[in-house]
Amino acid sequence: MNKNIVLDIKGLKKYFTNSGITNKAADDITFSLHEGEIVGLIGESGSGKTTVGRSLLRLYDDFNGFVTLDGKIVSGSRISNKQRKHLRRNIQMIFQDPHAALNGQKNIYSTLKEPLVVNGITKERINDIFKDWYDIKENFHYTFKQRALELELSNLESITLLAQKFFPYWIEKFKKIHYDSELDLEDNFNNFFNYLEEKQNMESEIVDNMYSNTDNLISFFYEKQKDYRNQNLDFAETGLINAKERYERVLQLTKISQKQYEAKNKLTQKKNELKELIKVQNEKSNDNRNTFKNFIAEYKSESRICRVARLTSYDLDFYLFNYKNELINKKISKIISKIKKELTHLSYAQISELIENLKQYSKEFFEQYLTPIKYQRKVIKLVEKTISEKFNFSYDKFVSIDKSEEEAFATAVAKLKEEIVQLKFIIKSAQEPSKTQEDLEKAKKSLDLAQEVHDYELAKYIEKNKSVIAQIQDKIKQQSDQYHSLVSQQSIADSEFTRVKDIFFDELRKLILAAKADKTKYKELVKLKNIYKTKIADKLNTLKSFHIEVKYLKKDINDINKLLGIKNSKMLAVFGNKFGKFIQKHFAKYYYRSSISNLLTKTTIYKALEDVGLLKQFAYRYPHEFSGGQRQRIVIARALISEPKVIVADEPIASLDISIQAQVVNLLKDLCEKKNIGMIFIAHDLSMVEYIADRVQIMHLGKIVESGSTESVYNRPMHPYTINLFKAVPKISNASEKFENVSFELDYLKEQVYPNVPQLYKVESDHYLYGTMTQIEEWIKPFGINNFNLATSKQTDEEYDSQIDHKPYDGRDDVPSNIEYTDEIKIDEETSEIKISSNFDFTKPGLSESDKTKPEVKETKKKSVSRKT
Fold it and tell me: How far is CA 288 from the centre of its chain?
């Protein structure tokens, strides 16, 4: 599996603070997402899944960590407009409640059009079309004309084929229909009402055929556009193009030398290179500033958390340790602020390496100088003095790298500018032309010969094409005559329908008058009469939509003819053939822009609806007219219409019926595979995640506690939280049994309290667990696993080919020691009740090997009790 990474998340943290209490909603979330891959985020409510999704879309701006989308950084306190546009276009979100996600005052067309306009997608396509539109439409004029006529013929044939059987049949049937008193009212009514039902089905089929033909015609234009750009043309056409290019070249060489000609071409190339070089450097500088700002904000945030931890601590050792943490994080943020001003040419990778070195230095410094300092008088000043005098981080290596990067950029710019100056000098210098008038006359003769060959072949093609077009036009005339004949038959059928309908209601009226004495029967007959009239009125209104849709389709065909360049232009009629063509070539993109833009928008919206299994006609309805499943499909269509790289699906099936859930999940899975889109699937439904996801991340209290391939995690769940989560899933095999009362015990958290160190361990080739070493040994023992390793970012990077992409890590484990910041767990002595308080972090330096064997948790508890006593 070697697909590209489209989303890379490293150390994403989102904390919420309130009255001095810190809630770590997302704590060091790290994983990657690849093209066409689906990653499932699983956890109970409050585990932080939605916070991760919202942070990725920057619904929360103030989060720490790094998010790279399709190779571009989109995280940081501030991002440029260009980065924001890149983010908005390439990552979309599907929300839990489809009704709340849609604007009830806008129809579906307006809703789906909005992302096309906001992200500039339609504008890009229009600009691309008009780059060579005139040349394409001139080159394929007769081909386009023939295909358009074939479309018209196909539309007429689809109408006549269905209508020529339908109307004669019903005209004869209506002649035989009479009110039969032996039949009940419903049968008498259906005898003639079925005409409207079948007519609607016929007209729907006709409209579908017409839509299909228009789509094929637009696709045909793009096919020929591709052929033209790839020079897949006839021999005569290619020969003429080459002869024109040779003539233009010789014409220029009669005025300038070969050296000047080459310099002129090279000048454009060098200017573009310089422009691109400066553009890349500006993006690199922006990433540089953003990356440094991110790290500064992260360490300032850690410093504030440590401050809150020490101020709320009741233990002097905890207080001192958190104070050391606070000061050292402040020191690191100041150093990074200083480095930021000096090293402005480092790349993201180089900055990351620099920060890793700084983390390692701070860890060693803490263990060497700060760990030995115990609580004593004037300890605060001692810690401050130690950090101030002895914390001397050297980054000379990166100063050299920055200088070399700066010099390399300056050298490259200077070199290009010098080359541009030299090329301009060559162009302006007086030199003898490389070609003579004789050479120009030879090139002109070659061009004329190529033009003669082209004109001869074109004349043959036109003659042949004219006969084909004439045959198609004859068929169109025949079908048109037949169509007009069928229109008159339709009028007869409609008249017959009205006649039979009136007879039915006359008979019904008589029955109503006869039943006046029986009030119950009278009311029932009146009610039936109203129901029948309403059904007919509704059906007739529905049938009116056929004529409206045909009218819109004719407008679309008119716009397609403009796109193909086969519509008779007013420019030619007003300005004449030659001058009119000149105006059309240079100004048609402004004249036709609006029509073609609307056409492209409409076809894109129709295609998006079809992709999610909805009809084109639904584009003009409003959200309240759809069911929950249909609304969710519309939300999916809106997410896909901008062709994103990543979709975040936040509980997309939670509010749907069980029968609809399977449809939506299958739809999402198929679309991700077909369009090569990466998806983060957030859900509570474990069975759905197992079905749809390639990899899973199990989240609890903002942490990823277990991760790996879906198969390995589901077949061998090892973390206590994961096991409890899976126990909560009801099974059909146990349908007769009562649901097991599953309690999400937090006992495993007691073992992660200071001084125990929870870290990420690799227990299998595609399986990761987060816990202390003792916990990991205990959890993997029932599965017969004896060996496991501490996971590193490098290991997980190298294992992508075996589908191991999850790289969680705890950045703070390295600063200033490898002790995890863990929420305080208080144990009530009398009730043994566990209470979690997230208002400070229990983080202390590592213990010696001899200390690790002692029952530290119990000692900590006794300390607390003795202080309270």
Answer: 26
**Other Cβ atoms closer than 10 A to 864:** 15
Strand 678-683 relative to strand 38-42: parallel, antiparallel, unpaired? parallel
3-class SS at 301? helix
Residue among 675, 677, 681 at smallest CA distance from 653: 681
* 771 neighbors 758 (Cβ within 8 angstroms): yes
Of residues 864, 185, 208, 867, the one with CA closest to residue 511: 185
β 646-650/91-94 pair status: parallel
Cβ–Cβ < 8 Å for 821, 787: no
Q: Using H for helix, E for strand and C for coil, what is the string for 5-25? A: EEEEEEEEEEEEEECCEEEEE
Q: Sheet containing 21-34: give its strands across.
A: 21-34, 5-18, 64-69, 72-73
H-type alpha helices, 79-184:
81-90, 98-101, 108-118, 121-129, 133-139, 141-176
| 297: Cβ contacts below 8 Å, ≥ 6 apart | 62, 64, 77
Half-sphere exposure of 843 (CA within 13 A, CB side): 30
Among residues 49, 7, 53, which one has the least CA distance to residue 31? 7
Angle between helices 108-118 and 121-129 (to 10 degrees): 70
Alpha helices in 683-772 (DSSP H): 686-692, 710-715, 720-727, 747-750
Q: Rounded to an integer, what distance in angstroms lies between the CA atom of residue 723 and that of residue 720?
A: 5
Q: Does the CA dihedral 256-262-265-266 come out positive or negative?
A: negative
C-beta separation of 676 from 121 below 8 A? no
Which pair of structure tokens corresponds to residue 784? 């017969």
Fold of 5-108+643-810: Rossmann fold (3.40.50)
pTM for the whole thing? Answer: 0.76
Distance CA 339, CA 346 (A): 11
Q: Going by DSSP bridges, is the β-strand pair 767-771/789-790 parallel, antiparallel, or unpaired?
A: unpaired
Please state the domain extents for the chain.
5-108+643-810, 140-233+467-567, 261-427, 823-868
Report yes or no: 606 and 211 within 8 Å, Cβ to Cβ.
yes
| CA–CA distance, 75 with 56 (Å, rounded to integer) | 8
Q: How far is CA 439 from CA 238, 251, 263, 446, in A?
A: 22, 9, 21, 11
Q: Among positive and negative, which fits the CA dihedral 169, 174, 180, 183?
A: positive
**pLDDT beneath 50, residues of the chain:** 572, 575, 794, 797-869
- The pLDDT, as a whole number, for residue 811 is 35
In tens, the pLDDT along 465-508 reads 788 888 888 988 888 888 888 888 899 999 999 999 999 999 99
Percent of all residues in the chain with a pLDDT value above 70, rounded to a whole number: 86
Separation of alpha carbons 406 and 413, rounded Å: 11
